Amino acid sequence: MKLSIRFFNNREVRAVWDDENNKWFFNVIDVVAILNDQDDYTKANNYWRWLKKKLASEGNQLVSATHGFKFVAADGKRRLSDTLDSEGIISLAKNMPNNKAMNFLDWFLYSDNTIDGQSKKKAYDLFASGLLKSLEPGTVKCLQQIHAYIFGGLYDFAGQIRNKNISKGGFTFAPCQYFGTTLPTIERMPETTIDQIIDKYVEMNVAHPFMEGNGRSTRIWLDLMLKRSLKRVVDWSKIEKNDYLNAMIISHTDSTQIKEFIKNALTKKIDDRETFMKGIDYSYYYEENE
Question: Is 37 helix (H, G, I), strand (E, B) or coil?
């Protein structure tokens, strides 16, 4: 089953792909919780049950358009939840008696024909492409091939090491004129233990070898090293966005926090499609501007 997670104001909107109907179905309770600004999933579910009865009594076809799919609940078990396709979600938002619907609809209807949208689709495809199995984890070439696959046809520098200096948030990344020495040095760093692997990941982040798309490519690169050496990958959904970003900001001087977050998020599901897809969703979520 192909799952996807999008984020509206840091809240999850989960979806499942229906092969039979060839479209996404979105979790209704996630949307109701957003539109009611409700953190309690049980209360959001109760509200949806009330609204569903109300709409049914009015003869609204939205109720009959719902489909049941299983999602992972708070207790870790898969439970059946109502879903709607995109047209149904739009109709649901229009039936919600509050003023949050318009902002939600503006976000929900945003086109995926952007560089981020297109590259995310290509990142999803990595799992089934077979490319990841042919790469040599921990090498610069491996990172370049990941970047080239995700951003090929979208950036003319896809897979190419930058030849300009860049900075972000007041921090200047490694000078490109020294890449001839810097990148081979990072490549030779050991990756036997978890601490060594994260140190290598942090150093590559400081290098930031591409003009754009460094974080999304390097997180996949990190998972490949973890998978080969430790038979683990990161469940990125267990690391909050702000925690991750703040930890990475200070990682070049103190990697304690990012090591703690990654160690606590490791999973043995190294060949699990859902874990990989969820990782891509969260990786792109980390890169979204507030």
Answer: coil
Domain ranges of the chain: 3-108, 115-287
CATH architecture of 115-287: Orthogonal Bundle (1.10)
Say how far apart CA 88 and CA 94 lie, in whole Å.
10
* pLDDT value of residue 124: 87
Q: What is the DSSP string of 214-250?
A: HHHHHHHHHHHHHHHHHS-EE-GGGS-HHHHHHHHHH
As a whole number of angstroms, the distance between CA 137 and CA 194 comes to 14
> Would you state the pLDDT for residue 1?
60
CA distances from 219 to 37, 244, 279, 282, 283 (A): 31, 12, 9, 10, 7
Helix (H) or strand (E) holding 12: strand 11-18
Q: For residue 175, is pLDDT > 80? A: yes
User: What gap in Å lies between CA 5 and CA 11, rounded to an integer?
Assistant: 10
Q: How far apart are the first and last CA of the chain?
A: 30
Strand partners of residue 70? 80
- pTM value > 0.85: no
pLDDT tens track for 44-77: 999 999 999 988 898 888 888 898 998 887 777 8
Mean pLDDT of 219-233: 98
